[in-house]
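Teaching note: in complex prediction, the entire set of molecules is handled at once rather than each chain in isolation. The prompt given to students was simply: 'Predict the structure of this complex.' The entities are:
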Amino acid sequence: MISLVYLELYKIFKKWRTYISFAAVIGFGLILQIVMVYEGDHYLEMITNGLENMFVLSGNFFNGYMVAYMILGALIVHVPFLVTLVTGDMFAGEATGGTYRLLLIRPVSRLKISTAKFIAGFIYTCAIIIALIAISLGLGLILFGRGELLIPYQGITVFAKNDILWRFACSYGYAIIAMMTVASLSMLFSTMVENSIGPIAGTMAVIIVFIILSSIDIGVLRSIRPYLFTTYTMKYQLFFANEIDFTEIWKSIAILVTHITVFTGSALFIIVKKDILS
Amino acid sequence: MEKVIEITGLTKKYRQLTAVNNLTLNVYKGDVFGFLGPNGAGKSTTIRMLLSLIKPTSGSVKLFGSELQTHREAVLRRVGAIVEKPDFYGYLTAYANLEIFGKLAGADVSRKHILETLELVGLDKRYNSKVKTFSHGMKQRLGIAQTLLHDPELIILDEPTTGLDPQGMKDVRDLILYLSKERNKTVFLSSHILHEVELIANRMIIINKGSTIIEGSVSELLNASKVRVTIEVNDIETASAIIKKSEFAASLEAITQNCLQLFLERSAIAQVNKLLVTGGVQVFSLIPANSLEEYFLKLTEGVAA
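The expected output is the structure of the full assembly:
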């Protein structure tokens, strides 16, 4: 299985489209970092607007943690598209290119080949988030140093500098699970069609529709909200609450993992059963 | 003799369409087996079922005596195949493609072995070129290289000369004969090019609309079939008079300025020649039409009608 995963990763990282995602994450991250170099003080004033009249704010609030938090929030909503750009192509790309036929007549079970593709897709998803960590937290700390983190979430919360890193670690871990849900959905769609545009567009359409449905706070829509995975994708913010609601976090993780399992299981079932006509 | 492929009652239905209908055939060790049929006859569907890409509606496929469905991995280890056009990862080099598909087949993927295999199909100098820069003919040859990499006992080739120029077609035919004679491979060759099968296969089956029309050794089928023969003579009037008075009168189809055209059993060609020569007619040439093609068209037209 390790060699199968290696072969899939080799194919992923030999495609130029893979580097679009990394270029986008790193490019946007760099732009935001540069903007922070020049506009950081202004940004801090904006989020602490009015607080100076009520509190005495002392300490280094404009620092790498604040920049990393800001970039995480700005980029995480775009990461699903970057993830599906590659994962949506995992199966459909083989059908489009005609390589399904050569691949699936090897003396390796379809289940193993498909599982290796899923694992490689998840590793790629992790790599995107790691790039996001490097460009937001890594570069942020290098450029702006450490300090207290002031969060404008559920009011204003300030975390001491030795109480921050683990929160970022947990948030990034949660973001990986959330993006794996997106990846598994796009790979499920990828098993159903023979061109990679469909899974990419389909996954984005599902995410956009679900987000819209989640944001409309009325009757029936409110009752279906708990069943939409998009309700849970942004819950990484829970780690930046003053009192962390671990029950809610574990529930959210369980729901996302259930989605991953269902999407992955369905995709594997489809691949194992389908006639290869491409 | 050991059966390498044993297909029994194989059927594939897509809703109303029956792509393959109750097909039965056997391929023996050492055969170069021609799998003939016009476009849309069900050849590729059969090959896909042979390689477990498609599940049959009914019937069974045995390779090397084992059921494909239950021993898939063990039997596919002994098979190399091209299904329809050989598509590869265009963004990778020929070498990298062979390395990937070779690893999946459990082949020796050492640099030496890959380059040797590429040399066999004449692509060793392009090993480091991306496949997207290859012509169709080069992809066909790379396709054959990937079938050989893990040294399989059975090679399944689906229309391997399609899109090749005459030299390319000859090269592929020579390669198939080399693999059969020098390396003892069993070859299952699907084609709609009858001349190709006539040249290299020892046994064949003709299918149309998913059903078997005829199966047997190529030589038997050729000998059993009638041939359209054009005979060029010095004296057309005497020659036509001799034929009209003979037992071959019914075989005479046309008379031109200096040629007779007869539709004969292959074994009768020499008798006609002897008859004309003993009657004082000089025979300049005696040209049979592509016999298998005639035969094939007759059979498939018959089914179509």
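Point out the following to students. The two ends of chain A are 25 Å apart (CA to CA). Chain A touches chain B through 24 residues (CB under 8 Å).
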